[in-house]
Amino acid sequence: MNTQSKIILSLNKNIIIQAIKDSFKKLNPKTQLKNPVMFLVFVGAILTSVIFLKNSFNGQFSGFNMQIALWLWFTVLFANFAEAVSEGRGKAQAESLRKSKTNTKARKLVNSKEEIVYATELKVNDLVVCETGDIIPGDGEVVEGISSVDESAITGESAPVIRESGGDRSAVTGGTKVISDRIVIKITSEQGNTFLDRMIALVEGAKRQKTPNEIALTILLSGLSIVFLLAVVTLKPFAIYSEIASGFKGNSPVTITILIALLVCLIPTTIGGLLSAIGISGMDRLVKRNILAKSGKAVEAAGDIDVLLLDKTGTITLGNRQVTAFLPLKHISVVKLAEAAQLSSLADETPEGRSIVVLAKETYGLRGINITEKDAKFIPFSAQTKMSGVDLRANGDGAERRIRKGAADAIKNYIESLGEEYPTEISQIVNEVAQQGSTPLVVAENGKVLGVIHLKDIVKGGIKERFEQLRKMGIKTIMITGDNPLTAVSIAAEAGVDDYISEAKPEDKLKRIREEQAKGHLIAMIGDGTNDAPALAQADVGVAMNTGTQAAREAGNMVDLDSNPTKLIEVVEIGKQLLMTRGALTTFSIANDIAKYFAIIPAIFASLYAVGGAKGPLSVLNLMGLVTPESAILSAVIFNALIIIALIPLALKGVAYRPMGAAAVLKRNLWIYGFGGLIVPFIGIKLIDIMINFLRFV
Amino acid sequence: MTILEIIQVILFIAVLIALTPPLGKFMAKVFNGEKNIMKPVFGGLENLIYKLSGIKAEEEMKWTTYTWSLLLFNLIGFIVVWLLQAFQHSLPINPQGLPNVTPALGFNTAVSFMTNTNWQSYAGETTLSYFVQMLGLTVQNFVSAATGIAVVVALTRGIIRKTANSIGNFWVDLVRSTLYILIPLSILLAVILVSQGVVQTYSSYANTTTLEGHSQVIPLGPAASQIAIKQLGTNGGGFFNANSAFPYENPTPFTNFLEMLSILLIPAALTYTYGKMVGSTKQGWAIFGAMMFLFIIALSVSLFAEYSHNATFNTSGLMEGKETRFGITNSVIWSTATTSASNGSVNAMHDSLSPLAGMVAMLNMMLGEIIFGGVGAGLYGLLIFVILTVFIAGLMVGRTPEYLGKKIQAFEVKMAMVAVLAPAFIILVFSAISSVIQQGLTSLNNAGPHGLSEILYDFSSAAGNNGSAFAGLNANTDFYNILMGIGMLVGRFGVIIPVLAIAGSMVKKKTSPYSAGIFQTDTVLFIGLLTAIILIVGALTFFPALSLGPVVEHLLMNAGRLF
Amino acid sequence: MKKNFLIALRVFLVLTIITGIIYPLVITLFANVIYPGKSKGSMIYKDNKIIGSELIGQKFTSPEYFWGRPSAIDNNPMPSGGSNLGPTSRKLKNEVQARIDMIKKYHENIPIQQIPKDLLFASASGVDPDISPEAAYFQIDRIAKARKMNMQQKKELYRLLSEYTRRPQYELFGMPRVNVFLLNLVINNIK
């Protein structure tokens, strides 16, 4: 099944029924006035209807005028429908969100006493208490306590997340549910302005503001409409001149109804009718990927991004490193090193630790002695010592063993504090490992260094190709890492990024962003910590992770609910797709006009300058061989209306996006929408003409 | 067409292409204030002019100041030309004793020369004295051309400067264009023209008796100096009524070639200047390419139409309104060149062209005079279309559209649409009015669809600041003089003001660096796209009107119908 | 604003002097010194009286002279111009018919198709000095007959015509042509 039909199927009946109802509601002139192109059609529909009714009243019923008027109304309704459908889809998504919002009560802390109030009454800086089972009443920051929170209502992710005061996991979102413990939250956003509110507003399209490019495009379309208005209005006097010059007698075929029909066919109704649907569904696509944008402007800006600032960990490399080799000192056997490393990692549940145990087992057949708490004391990693390890008591099998593993300088300090010598040979190995972009961990036993564990950063599969594509699209990638320069350069090379910042501090990000912006680049970055906030605010597109701090979320202009750094690339793609869809449909719309001229102009002037009963000379322009003037005009009007409906799926889905350079994309889209736009109406109008003549509509 | 005629077409295009880079390079130096070969000759004079006029050359202007200066200067020019005509009889160098010009005609002529249109409701020989032609018209020929060049230079600065505020100094641009470019080229051309037989004298008209004994008055005058600048400055206003068909304006095939070349010379070279100034001659060639492509299409259609069979006269290649020394081919090259550029001089009577050749000439003007176009005006007009093309196509590559690193946003699109709409409004609305009211219709020389063509052509000429005419239409009535005058004003300043506004808005913007994601504007694809947008916008706007004028006339002509 | 107005006024004055006075005067001076004849209209004198200009076509209607291009202004350039009639003009059709009839008077047996077209259609300036060589040769028999020329004289007529037929200028520009006024001047001298 192709994607188009999937989209149609994914629109459930309710949305469609609602959209049909809304199409009529949107006939309100105030609503129509927002879209100048469709407003012209709206006025045309009214005028043709009035003319039809007036003539009918005077006993001059005209089936042709009636059909024109009807199809003009359809044109307006179809455009309304497109907008209503896209809004409906957004609404459906918002609805579930809204449910969690309504009727929430909050336990507000006033002078250390709890008061029950409605969530809607909360103000910024109010403190509220939430305990197990409570819905968090608004966006805020945990100021006291720790708890697990179910955020599935907004992220769809069922696993609960930890939220605690201080640190980088302090932000909570209104509408999510506390499932353990008790926290005190400081409300940080006004009711009605929470993320949830904004998201609902954006996907529903209710408060949607036009984005900069959309405004520019609307101006272009309005300008074109004025051009066509001039062309059509002045056609009447030119026709009068010509009719006199040709000695034409009788009723002029150039009636107001026909001129309005011509105008509606020429003005860019296709793009005009679908413009807001394209915008809303662009937003919708973001939400589907669990990204909340604070404004449509941000989405559009994403398409312009040409520099991506990416954190190494999680984006470029898998979050965890893995051991790839044990590198013993010369006089130490590799098995001894592996065994010591394995022992020290038995209690280490981190992926690194587990990978050590697994590698030792698989490569050297070390089973891992069953050690109990009685025999061993595990030393967990601490920030002070930067080491972890194990102390084994002496027993029947052997002497006491004190094994430590950690960063080179930490082990060096440790050994020297024991009065032992730190061999120079080990430093060499450590450097070699670091140069390969890996992390060396030194292992020591009873004060003697055994060797080095080679922990490697694993670059994500396919990421290099992804960056290659981005490069083709003209987007530069910059990797940010806390690693030393040696490690950074090697990972940068392996991943294929264009540049990197090593030993990066948060300020470095901000600095780099400013530098790139000064050169005229537009930068996107993703971040989570409070100290990322300035950079997120400075970046043109700042995506904050949902797990991050409230400060980060406020600073960015998008929030990734999945907290997945790779999303940044998708954000850019969605932005580009949005702009492409608008451009493609504009081109299509304008290209359509040529066929419409060839349908209507010869029809209007079929008998001008005609001699006897013969056809007039301008009939040669009837390239499509449309049967009668009436059927020709009606066919063009019907085509013009139907094409809106036909293109709704495209507007909702967006034009096919491919990561290619600008020239290739342009060529492709020009063929499909430019050339296609030229040809399709010739075929379409001809087919409709055959059909309506077959059905004897005229 | 004979082989020689085909060679003449190719030669014309080849010489035009060959002259574009050297002249373009020279002009870039002039506008950047760099050393150039004319500096030793005119450098002192330039400084003297600044001193006499109180101009501070290094003072830069914001777009608003630039625009006001331009408008003021043009206003003064307009008033002076109007007054000179109003008091012509009392002024010197009027050997024929020509009377004062009526206010409506004076208004029309003053507007016409100020706006670089050189629409001539008057007939040179019988209306204007040598004094008015020199001090009024020749001066405007220079400064209106220089005004056009100044505008495009200001726009170019708007595009290339990064986050700046000013777009240059109007007075400096005006003086430099006049002094370094227009005067030297005019002197060169005028001298060659005189050597071929173009008149340059202050004596009164010659009264003669012909060989057969008829009496004949032969008009004379200081024509060469005015003709040189009217060709080079895309002015087009002839010294004599028949313009460059008149032997004293264009005596030999060689002067014809030079005058034809002069029409397109500066507009073509300005594309190279533009490329130089924006730092990529490829960008300039792309624009040149689009212009040349359109020119060749126009020329081919016109030639085909002129050489096609005419059923009424059972002949092909109608010589009506054409001169023997030029023949059909050179008449058609000229008619295409003069309407492509907003020159408006003629060496054949356009009213008598075949319907389709007439339509091409009309369409060249309707497209906005951007196929080379007026000096400066053609390039800034084309850049308007570049902006529209970049906007539509740029969206299709998925970025906010950019041109040379500058974002094209709502304001630019709005101004570009104003610049496209202003002339289109004049052409369609004024033609529509004239085609149904008595004041409009009584002036017609031809009946049937050709009459409508006359009206359409003449308002296209006014709005495009072209100045050529389907001259059968008697435009010297109060109705046409005033309507045409308004048309020329709107067609000129309705484009210049938005263009300068765009310059002012673009100059403030950041320039984004080049990347593979950016839509390139120096490729063949872009040239194709640009021409397509120009043709489609033009065709869509004017197709209905044209179908009732030249199109139906062509079909009727083939059927042998007469009106 | 006021400052700019004053500047505008002063620049205008200075440029008027340069382009409106100095420039044309310099060109005139140059022209009158180097090309005194051409700059004053390429006049042809007879007995110190101007009898016409080499560049301005004259009206010829009598059968003894070569006829030039038809003129919409009767070869009287005050002002100059063409007919401005379009290709579907009935008036043009009638005018052409009148010219055909006129020619037919002297060239009875010539089919219309063989009449050179430049003798039927009016020029752009109304004073086109030239006709095509075909149009000139077409008229030779008529002139010879009207002037009652003998074989020798007619041969001389042919010779003069061929002498006065100009090839494209510099073999490259324009069309071959014959200057009617100059040719008519010399055929009067045929003895």
How would you portray this structure in words?
The complex is a heterotrimer of chains A (698), B (563) and C (191). Helices cover 53% and strands 17% of the residues of chain A. Chain A has 698 residues and is an alpha+beta fold. Chain B is mainly α. Chain B has 2 domains: 238 residues, no CATH class; 277 residues, no CATH class. In chain B, 64% of the residues lie in helices and 3% in strands. In chain B, α10 crosses α11 and α13 packs across α14. Chain B is globular. Chain C has 191 residues and is mainly α. Chain C has a 3-stranded antiparallel beta sheet with strand order 3-5-4. Chain C has a two-stranded antiparallel ribbon with strand order 1-2. In chain C, α4 packs antiparallel against α5 and α5 packs antiparallel against α6. Chain C is elongated, with a radius of gyration of 23 Å. The termini of chain C are far apart. The chains are: A alpha+beta (698), B mainly alpha (563), C mainly alpha (191).
How would you sum up this structure in a few lines?
The complex is a heterotrimer of chains A (698), B (563) and C (191). Chain B has 563 residues and is mainly alpha-helical.
Radius of gyration of chain C: 23 Å
Strand content of chain A: 15-25%
- Largest interface chains and counts: B-C, 125 and 96 residues
Tally the beta strands of chain A: 22
Number of domains of chain C: 2
Low-confidence segments of chain A: 1-9
Supply the number of helical segments of chain A: 25
Mean pLDDT of chain C: 94
The overall pLDDT of chain A, averaged over residues, is: 84
| Overall shape of chain C | elongated
How would you classify the quaternary structure?
Answer: heterotrimer
Key attributes of the depicted protein:
heterotrimer, B: 563 residues, mainly alpha, 2 domains, two-stranded antiparallel sheet, two-stranded antiparallel ribbon, 64% helix, globular, C: 191 residues, 3-stranded antiparallel β-sheet, 6 helices, 5 strands, elongated
Question: What topology emerges from the helices and strands here?
Answer:
The complex is a heterotrimer of chains A (698), B (563) and C (191).
Chain A: H1 3-10, H2 13-25, H3 29-33, H4 36-57, H5 63-101, E1 105-110, E2 113-118, E3 127-131, E4 140-144, E5 146-150, H6 152-155, E6 161-164, E7 171-172, E8 177-178, E9 182-187, H7 195-204, H8 212-233, H9 235-245, H10 256-266, H11 269-288, E10 291-293, H12 296-304, E11 307-311, H13 312-316, E12 317-328, H14 334-345, H15 351-364, E13 376-379, E14 387-392, E15 401-406, H16 408-417, H17 424-435, E16 439-445, E17 448-459, H18 463-472, E18 476-480, H19 485-495, E19 499-501, H20 506-518, E20 523-527, H21 533-538, E21 541-545, H22 550-555, E22 558-560, H23 567-604, H24 629-653, H25 662-694
Parallel strand pairs in A: 11-18, 11-20, 18-19, 20-21, 21-22
Antiparallel strand pairs in A: 1-2, 1-3, 3-9, 4-7, 4-9, 5-6, 5-8, 10-22, 12-17, 13-14, 14-15, 15-16, 16-17
Chain B: H1 3-31, H2 39-53, H3 63-86, H4 103-114, H5 124-127, H6 130-160, H7 170-196, E1 206-209, E2 215-218, H8 223-232, H9 253-278, H10 281-307, E3 309-310, E4 315-316, H11 327-340, H12 355-366, H13 377-396, E5 402-403, E6 406-407, H14 410-434, H15 438-441, H16 449-463, H17 478-507, H18 524-558
Antiparallel strand pairs in B: 1-2, 3-4, 5-6
Chain C: H1 2-34, H2 36-39, E1 43-46, E2 49-53, H3 90-106, E3 130-131, H4 133-146, H5 151-164, E4 165-166, E5 177-179, H6 180-187
Antiparallel strand pairs in C: 1-2, 3-5, 4-5
